[in-house]
Every structure is written in C-alpha cells, then in structure tokens.
Amino acid sequence: MTESASRASPLRDLNIYPLRDTLDREFHARPHENVQPPLRVIHLVMLSEPSQEEQTQEHVARLCKHFGVAVPTLGDAAHFSARCSETLSLKWERHQEFSTYTFFLSGAFSEPFSDAFETLLLTTSLGGIPGDLLVAVQIAFEPTTAPTRSLEQLHELFETAHLVGSEVSNGNARVFSDFLASHNGFSRILVRDHQLTGHQPGRLVQRLLDIETYRAMAILGFPRMRSLTQELSRMEQHLSDLTASMSQGADHEHDKQILQKLMRLAGETEHISAASAYRFSAGRAYHALVRHRLEELRETRIEGLPPIHEFLERRFAPAMRTIEAAHERLERLSKRVARAATLLRTTVDVALAEQNSALLASMDRRVKMQLRLQEMVEGLSIVVIGYYLTGLLGYGYKALAHLGVPMDVDIAIATTIPFVLLGIWLTVRWRRKKLMETHPGTPS
Questions:
Q1: How many Å separate Cα 52 from the centre of its chain?
Q2: Torsion of CA 65, 67, 68, 71, to 10 degrees
Q3: Dist CA 283 CA 290 (whole Å)
Q4: Where does the pLDDT of residue 6 fall: very low under 50, low under 70, confident under 90, or very high at 90 and above?
Q5: Per-range mean pLDDT, top range of 28-37, 130-139, 322-331
Q6: Element holding 273 (H helix, E strand)
Q7: What single-letter DSSP state applies at residue 172?
Q8: How far is Cα 155 from Cα 152, in angstroms, rounded to an integer?
Q9: Which of 172, 374, 383, 399 could in theory staple to 195 by disulfide, Cβ–Cβ 3.0 to 4.6 A?
Q10: Contact present, 413 and 393 (Cβ < 8 Å)
Q11: Cα(202)–Cα(200) distance, rounded to whole angstroms?
C-alpha cells in the first residue's frame, strides 16, 4: 500500500457527500495565469445568452484549431487555458451572463499599445465570436528594466489629460490608465513592475481585468434605470391622483373604479419590479466585486495623479447610486400602491358593513311586521275556527232538543262560545311552544 493510499484509507468506509469534490474545486475555479513581465494582454468580454452556449463552445474549438491546440471537451467546464505558442497563451472563461477571452503575449515590446498584437488576433481568430462585445481591454506590463516615463510622457502615451494612476501591491508596481476606449476600441492599462515576485504579476493582471469587467457589468442596467425614472414619475403622479380621489367620499361605484385602477397600477409595478429584479441584484453583486478588487490593489497615491479608487468613486459610484435609488424608488412605489389599495379596500369593507347593517335592520323590521301580521291572522283564525266549531255544536244542540232533551239551543250555543275560543287559543299556543322547542331561535 502506498503512502497516499494509506492516508486516504480512514475515509474509505465513510459516506462521502456527492458534491464534496465539486465544492472543493469551486475554491480553485478560474485561477489566475502565472505570467511575468514583459507582457501584453488583450481581454474581451462578450455578453451572451444561454442559447448561445453551444456556439460559444464551437468558437473556442475553432480558436484551438487555429492555434494548433488540442480541442477541449468543455461540457460544463467554466474555464479553459491553452498555450498557443511559446509566447502566446489563451484563457477562456464562461460566466452566467458573459464569456471572457484573454490572450497573453510574453516578450519584449517597444510600444506598449501598438496595433501589432491586436491586429494579429483580430484578423486571424476573433471574428464571429458569439454575443455582443461589452469590454475590450489592452494591458501592457513593463518590466523593471523598462525606461521610466514622466507624467508628460504618460499623458502623451494615453493621449488624454485625464490620467489615473497609483502604486499598487504595497508599492511593488505602478498602474496607469484613462479608462477610456481609444481610437481602436480598446481601453488601455499600463503596468510597470517594481518588485513583484512569484504569482504577484498574474494576480495583479487578474484584478485589473476583473475591475474592468465587473464595473461594466455593474452599470449594465444604468440606461434602463434612467429610462425608468420617467416611468416611475408618471406612476407616482397617477398614484397621487388616485389617493386624492379616495378622500372625496364618493359612492361605492366610484370606489370600485379606483380600486380597479390601483390593481392595474400594482400589476404594472410588479411587472417592472420582476423584470428589473435580476439586473438590480446582479449590479449590486458586481459592484461589491469591484470594491473588493480595488481593496486588493492596496493603492498608494502618486503625486499629481488621482488613484484608481478615487476615479471610480467619482465616476462609477454615482451611477451605482442612481441604480440603487431607482430600485428603492420602485420598492417604495410598490409599497405605497399596496397601502393605498389596502386603505381603499378597508373603506369599501366599512361601507359594505354599513350597508349590510342597514339591510339587516330592514330585514329585522320586516320580520317583526310579518310576525305582527301572523299574530293578527292567528287571532282571526281563532275567531273563524271558533265560528265554524260553534256552528257544528249548534247542530248537535238542535238534534238533542228534537230528541226531547230539555234545553234552550241559543243559550247553549252562547254558553259554549267562550270555552270553544279558549280551547282553540290554548291549542294554538301549545303548538307554537312545541315549534319553538323544535326550532330554537325562531322569532316568537
């Protein structure tokens, strides 16, 4: 048994979590390239849809064939690196919303941002990349032996008066950029090595590329948020008008119409919120990544130049605050619509309760009236039944008189009438009592 097998043997009898290896590999996903200056880098960020995944993989395969690299089986792989030649290497990464293509060219150069490297790549291998180009960055990484440039020379190199620069990695390197797309469409970053060692150059390049990538992804929703501002203003004014009309004390039909309009406004608000929710949350996550990468740079100010974090704080942060403000405004609008709808429903419920109370009172009055009429009918019924029953008894009295029984028929009938009526009244009262016992709650 080998030493490695002996070390692993204690785990053989344990139930291993199915995703243990996947989770462990996630900590090592998307590693930075191990590069050293002098170096030039081209980095492209392509927005892509999930439906373009197969096309993206086919294009990566064409890139590999173009450079004579073995075509990989990507499958669910999220990144791929290949050495195209002794000096050129390729790194491809797939993210949820975009894919990145990064080319590293090692070797000395005289002009940091000459078109030779860029033209070679664009004319031979990058045509037809699936998706839409969002970011194009060119990095020139100079070694410590390169001539030192003055601020005037740096301004001339970038052809701008708005140069940004700072010392990074605790003063072991310097970074300069204007964060603007040049005439060839690339934003340019110049890095000068001072005392970087080991993997530090690769990590620094990766941080700079991440800052460019994630700041663009973070403000991807900014144009939508600006257009949403006018729409939110219209919806807020509409809500204010509806809320004002609620206090006019109109009839039930008017309240019903307002409630229907509020429901339509609530539906519209929820539709916008659902359509923008992912962009809001994604922008917030990308913003957090940018801030984290800036902290990792560990910047120190260069006299006469604003540092990178200050530039982004002045330009990038306001855009993110605008997005956050629009998101909060949309959430407040949704809550206001919900409160207005709840208030109106309460008003309608109170009005309905008052109507129901009036209706029940009216029904109670009608029931009492019907009861009085029923009692009157019962009284008349007693008289009628008594009349007919007395008439029957009269026939019996007349028959007895004809049979020789000594009696005055009229007096006998008159004497019987009170007892007949009392008997009928007692019978009706007994039947009503039995009915009340059988059906409790019946009006008496």
A1: 24
A2: -40
A3: 10
A4: very low
A5: 130-139
A6: helix 252-297
A7: T
A8: 5
A9: 172
A10: yes
A11: 5
pLDDT at 1: 42
Tell me which residue of 173, 142, 183, 178 sits closest to 163, measured CA to CA.
178
pLDDT at position 3 over 70? no
Contact assessment for residue 175 and residue 123, using Cβ atoms and an 8 Å cutoff? no
DSSP SS3 for 198: coil
- From the list 175, 40, 166, 176, the residue with the least C-alpha distance to 114 is 40
Token pair 């030493």 is found at 3
**C-alpha to C-alpha distance for 286 and 222, rounded to whole angstroms:** 13
CB distance 283 to 218 below 8 Å: yes
Tokens 């005392």, located at residue = 195
Q: Which pair of structure tokens corresponds to residue 136?
A: 């194009």
CA dihedral defined by 151, 153, 158, 163, rounded to 10 degrees? 10
What one-letter code names the amino acid at 278?
Y
pLDDT at position 124 is 66
Confidence of residue 286 (pLDDT cuts 50, 70, 90): very high
Residues 138, 189: contact at Cβ < 8 Å? Answer: yes
Q: How confident is the model at residue 208 (pLDDT cuts 50, 70, 90)?
A: very high
Distance CA 78, CA 21 (A): 16
**pLDDT over 80 (residue 62):** yes
Site of tokens 């990566």: 60
Per-residue tokens: 12: 């053989």
Check residue 179 and give left, alpha or beta (phi > 0: left; psi -120 to 50: alpha). Answer: left
The region that residue 108 occupies, defined by phi over 0 for left and psi between -120 and 50 for alpha, beta otherwise, is beta
CA quadruple 92, 93, 94, 95: dihedral sign: negative
Among 124-128, 216-220, 343-347, 400-404, which is the least confidently predicted range? 124-128
Region 193-198 average pLDDT: 92
